[in-house]
Write a structure and sequence with these properties.
The protein is mostly beta strands and 105 residues long. It is 0% helix and 70% strand. The protein contains no helices and 8 strands.
Length: 105
């Protein structure tokens, strides 16, 4: 029976299992480094053995390996004011960190 957990990082919450890969907001760490996340909830995959934190569970951590640091595709942002020939266009690339969950517990 594998475990699932809800972690919080970068102002967002993610439902993860072991060997999951996900892109999270940029973390300050090197490639191939390790990082630990705080856990809000753990459970078995069938829903048994549920543990809820208030807000986090102190004795449980989720360990992850950093696979990549990068930036997402560019988006174009346009500010336009009609009738005045006024417009401004700029781009934005959001930085991210790609992690693989190695251990829950």
């Amino acid at each position: 029976m594998s475990k699932i957990a809800v972690i919080k990082t970068g102002g967002k919450q993610y439902l993860v299992k072991e060997k999951d890969t996900l892109k999270v907001e940029k973390l300050v760490a090197k490639k191939d480094g390790k990082v630990n996340f705080d856990v809000l909830m753990t459970s078995g995959e069938d829903g048994r053995a549920l543990k809820l934190g208030t807000p986090i569970i102190k004795d449980v951590k989720v360990e992850a390996k950093i696979l990549d640091q990068g930036r997402a595709e560019k988006i174009r942002v346009v500010h336009y004011k009609n009738k005045t020939r006024q417009h401004k266009v700029y781009g934005h690339r959001q930085p991210f960190t790609k992690v693989e969950i190695t251990k829950i517990g």
